[in-house]
Amino acid sequence: MKRILFVLLVVLSLILVACGGTTTETPAATEPAAPAETGGEEAAPAETEEEAAAPSTSGINELNVLWAQWDPADYLQQIANMYEEETGIKVNIIQEPWGTFGDRFYAEMAAQGTAWDMVIGDSQWLGTSSSLGHYMNLTDFLNQNEITDTVTEATLQYYGEYPPGSGTYWAYPTEGDANGWAYRKDLFEDPEEMAAFEAEYGYPLAVPETMDQLLDIAKFFTRPDEGLYGSALYTQVDYDGLLMGFQNMLFSYGGNWSDENFNPEGVINSPEAVAALEFYRELYECCQAPGLSNAFFAEVNDAMISGQAAMGMNYFAFFPALANPEVNPYADVTGYFVNPAGPDGQQFGSLGGQGMSVINFIPEDRKQASLDFIKWFASDEVQKKWGEVGGYSANKAVLSDPAFLEMTPYNAAFAETMGMVKDFYNIPIYNELLISAKDELAKFVVGGEGTAQETLDRIAEIHAEMLAEGGFLDQ
Amino acid sequence: MSGSNADLMDVAVTESPAKPKQRRTLSDRTLANLMIWPTLIILIAFNVFPLFYSLFLSFTDYSAIAFREPQWLGFENFQRILESEALWTSFSITGRYVVLSVGLELILGFGLALLIREQFRGSGVITTIILVPMMLSPVVVGLFWKLIYNPTFGYFNYLLGVNNLATPPDFLASRWAGQPTPGLALLAVVLVDVWMWTPFVALLIYSGLRAIPDYLYEAAVIDRASSWFQFRRITLPQVAPLMLIAVLFRTIEAFSKSFDLTMGMTGGGPAGQTEVIAIRIYQQAFQGQLQTGRSSALAYMVLILVIAISNLYIRNLNKAKEG
Amino acid sequence: MSNFEQNGPGFPVTESIRVDKVSPRARLSHALRAIVVIIVAIIMLVPIFVMGLTAFKSRSDVVAIPPKIIFEPTLEGFVFLLTNRSQLRGEALEEAKANIDNVGIFERIAITNGQSITGPSDFIKRLGNSVIIAFGATAASVVLGLLAAYAFSRFDIPGKDDLMFFILSGRMLPAVVVTIPIFLMYRQLGLYDTHLGMIIVYTVFNLSLTVWLLKGFIDEIPVEYEEAALVDGYSRFQAFTKIVLPQAATGIAATTVFSLIFVWNEYAFALMLTSETARTAPPAIATMLGRGGIEWSAIAAGTLAFLIPVLIVIFALRRHLLRGVTFGAIRQ
Predict the structure, then answer these.
(1) Could you tell me whether strands A334-337 and A179-184 are parallel, antiparallel, or unpaired per DSSP bridges?
(2) Segment A233-278, tens digit of pLDDT
(3) Which candidate in C65, C155, C291, C297 is best for mutational testing of the A interface (most A CBs within 10 A)?
(4) Deepest in the core among A250, A284, B216, C176, taking most CB within 10 A?
């Protein structure tokens, strides 16, 4: 008897699965679960007639924006409060910790959920989320409102455009970010150190402008007996830390992940790329502070705060902590510089940063309300304020404004870096490419297995296969 | 303790003869059904769908965020897994992790149980204290042990006295005296797992030990049996079932749930030395890919493995119970 | 069998009076054992101690080299944990600093960090959710598990082994993978982000533990007692409640403790199946990122605060955990 019941249940579930396996529920059906929506929302679906022409007055008085949990989200909340004062519409910046930001976002997208109206998504999500229909196409909106001219080309390209070069936009560049370096000014400007350095290396001790100088300075400051080390590099394997760190060197040495036709062979394992990887490994081997074998922004900052590292690479978004005397005892003597140039004079910084997108599953009137918010946010005055409260604006005017540049010790380096950013793949299969690459890189850089050439050859092979399978590369 | 027995006997002695027989007693059969079905119903309702849905998905290329019909791939996902060298390495690392941690937990847990078996003042408090590691969230434990293992500002090296060497040992990077010593990271992670879960095993074994009637030992002493004999013939058989349950659950957890601890401490590094299979599954199921089909396939392989191992344990469990 | 004569001490026997156990040598070994246990307890506690210290350290103290045991304690971690703050810059910061002596201690700490408190954080609410969900799920799974375990132990049920295995299989699939199907299922059923939904999920996943553990404990109780009771006219169910339950008290206590701990600290489901309403504390604590990095002190403070309810429960149950079942007075 029980067996029959059991079998029946199995059959039933299989039927259920076959029929309703993929969720095709409409957004309205998921209403019971959507949080943080007030009574005003009930009225909204009934009045979806208002179209894009008129500004939203259809009873929407709250918008939800998803971002990661970090200081810039707090700053954005301040800006959002300004919007509420002006228009009465409350904008909630919902913060999800970085480690789970992506997971939560994609889980919600899997359910075609409407928990949020906008998301400030990572630049790498562009490919996936635009091609899978999560993001709303903002091309006409940005062009018609002339927003495309207000931000730098690099940011528009990397934070908003997909496919690359197509002129189709999916996000408004909100928080610019890139890799830069922090360094201990007190060590660099100490007369004895300067004399010793010049004696040993033959040129004055200063902020490194080339990779070779970076290496020299790192070696010079690596003194295990004194607990001082030259560098704190990204080596994180949980996700993309190591890869982003290596990318700085890869691009500056003249290497790249693939050519325009998505062919990685001969590009990612070119002599330039090999030299870059060998450089990264050398820098790690000789001069990395201990305990930083799986380092990302937190560990690098900790190394600077504890005084262990003379120089540390990190995203600019995390430098405010280093400049805060309450957090960092060395805050007043911490300086910042851009990623040094490679042997050929090419200079790039790994791109970070996010753009503001509108979720495609929300009703029309909420989309309109969201667009209105973005339009307001993109205006020069608001962008200026955004920069003032600490946001890394992508707005051209702000980036060239001396007031902004002098506001914090790192803004100048930030503005300079935003002119030379370069990114990893942002196509939908970027994650597989990323994970396979970072595994190989970790084996060589941290584990010391094999040679740089072998490592990059393997990556080229794996990537070629993935890109071909994904239809990007014609074999 | 004798007190409760006295109660029991009071009940048996004074109430029974005068108690009116209740005619409305439920039959054994009905009672059995009543007792089991709520559990089964809940399990079926909420367990079966995910189980079978995952099984179905493992044969497809489904991705939860791409809203297209899942395409049937047959065994392709499984083939890909079996052909992947990286995944085989992951499996072997997980196996090593399980054997080391469960083995150590068993031995240390048994010892601990023997120690706390003798009651003394304050043993209640001590028990509570010993259980504290288990009460913490594995994610947080991973994070904090990362701090503790830090070569220069971590307490582990500090307490060992080796944190101010020129090259302090960096356990999570598998480095000893500046030289890479592979496997060190795995040992470090196993240590934390053992720290967390030995109390669990100890408590289970302790409960078993407590249940052994003293008179068995007294009889053995009278017969002049050796301690070892006492252990083998009295202690072990009584404790074996609970021991096996503990081992069973720890093994299942180590395979399917060791994610939090390892991810928090090493992220699977260095160079994949602690990349247990749970991390791989997470990478495929989430991390922007939501390759639901593939991760389900991998998870099912793990499931099959776990089922096989569990069956082995359970068979031994039944044998042990029969004496 | 219904007339037992108790010969022996009329007081609870907590220490054996057997000759071989009260000799000086035995006393010494007893004392040694106690000492070893205490040492073990201390070693177990060291990392907890570290965490406790960290809760009161400032960020730079946490990463100081060499690690600090003596330091200047601050409530930073707790401020971070319990409040939402926003950054102050420029003039606002200057103003606040000037005003610093007129505000409460929490605000003062925030200002020295360049921030101002905007309100309480969600932590207390999350703690409340954790309490409701964890205790609810534990109660449900222990009760249901107890019934099922008794039935499996005492009755002859067709397909018993298969059913037991089916129950066990509930935990075997890695949570990470089951999360997506359950997530989708819950969205359909409207159970997403509800307390009931979470309680159900945790009950389901705990049942395998509770059924197996409790069956193990109940198996240890000789059937003779119940048979005696049945002969005396008790119904099966009464035999269950009056005889088996008290004797299984240790097992029930242990099972309750383990179930509670599992649910209390569960992270994956708590993260994916909840949003604002029903989110429990673990996802919040583990990922506190603040000023450019991991907020160690806040995480430590949160962990400590989170530990306390469980600690209280275990402390309350400790007698049951330790009290075994003695069969010493009953000869078969």
Answers:
(1) antiparallel
(2) 999 888 889 999 999 999 999 999 998 889 999 999 999 999 999 9
(3) C291
(4) A250
